[in-house]
Amino acid sequence: MAVIEAPFSHLFSLFAVAIFPFAHPLLKRFDRWATPVLAVVGVAVLLLETRHPLRRRTRPRSERWLRNLLLAAPSLPAMRLTLLPAVVGLAQLAAPHRPARLLAGLPGPLRTTAEVLLLDYLAYTWHRLLHSPLLWRLHRVHHSDLDMDLTTAWRFHFGEMLASIPYRAGLPALLGVRPATALAYEVVFEACTAMQHSNWRLPLAAERRLVPLLVTPRAHGIHHSMVRAETQSNFGVVLSLWDRLHRTLRLNVPQCDLTIGVPAYPDPADQTVARLLVLPLAPLEPWARPDGSVPERAPTTTSLLELAADGNC
User: Fold this and answer.
1) Which neighbouring-strand residues pair with 214?
2) In the Cβ-directed half-sphere of 184, how many Cα atoms lie within 13 Å?
3) d(CA 312, CA 17)
4) Is the Cα dihedral 143, 145, 150, 151 positive or negative?
5) Buried-exposed string 96-134: b where 16+ CB fall within 10 A, e elsewhere
6) What are the two backbone dihedrals, phi and then psi, of residue 19, each rounded to the nearest 5 degrees?
7) Is 207 strand, coil or helix?
8) What pLDDT shows up at residue 299?
9) Which GO terms describe its molecular function (predicted)?
10) What is the pLDDT of residue 21?
11) For 148-194, what is each residue's pLDDT tens digit?
12) CA distance 88 to 178
């Protein structure tokens, strides 16, 4: 009888977490400490990018901030009300099954390390999937920003958040990642997303020491380039390790030579909130400007793995 009842009890737990997304103890704890931590990170990044800007702005900051915050208004609640409860609920549902017990035999610190590496690798692979034709419909809302700063880290279509649930919550649960580790990683994920999208000019020498381990603002800026080969690089979220392993790391582009955005949408008229909300329904455009020209970059002899100096801007 207990064997029959167990699946129903886990289904009930999943249902309860979905219906009461703030009631679970882990989610209460997350809200209690993650919110102030991420607020401090956000304020720090804002001050640093304001005081030490990396790239010149091409659009008025107030105009972009208002737009990006309006886009974040549905996407951030979508994450909190769906993705995070799914992390907890699906982990409880998967716990009794064999795949979810694969990591259970590891000693505590080793298991936590394995879980974090697995989560970050899944984030890398999910990001690559976002650049496939189907998911690019959603993700191009994020990439079409014509400048980059802290608010770009929040500029996601709410549909992208919802689409990520099976991959970012379901797969970790199936592979045995504990929900507490997944929620802690989510804080690191969000903090690193804020930092790497920022317009903060770290000292070049310091960033060259960081980039072998972490994704940095200069590295992620290249990922937002209008040059197709550069957009198809630097998919990592926290660790740059996965880009190195999969040969998708590209660091040799000066920041002053970057044009940020998607070539098909260079016009500020394409940047209204109304147009961005319905952009996933629009046909996929060729990777070219409206006049048909394709953004390109002249070949360089500098190694892809050498972080370039910024140039003159």
Assistant:
1) 239
2) 10
3) 53
4) negative
5) eeeebeebeeeeeeebbebbbebbbbbbbebbebbeeee
6) -80, -35
7) helix
8) 86
9) iron ion binding; oxidoreductase activity
10) 62
11) 999 999 999 999 999 999 999 999 988 889 999 999 999 999 999 99
12) 8
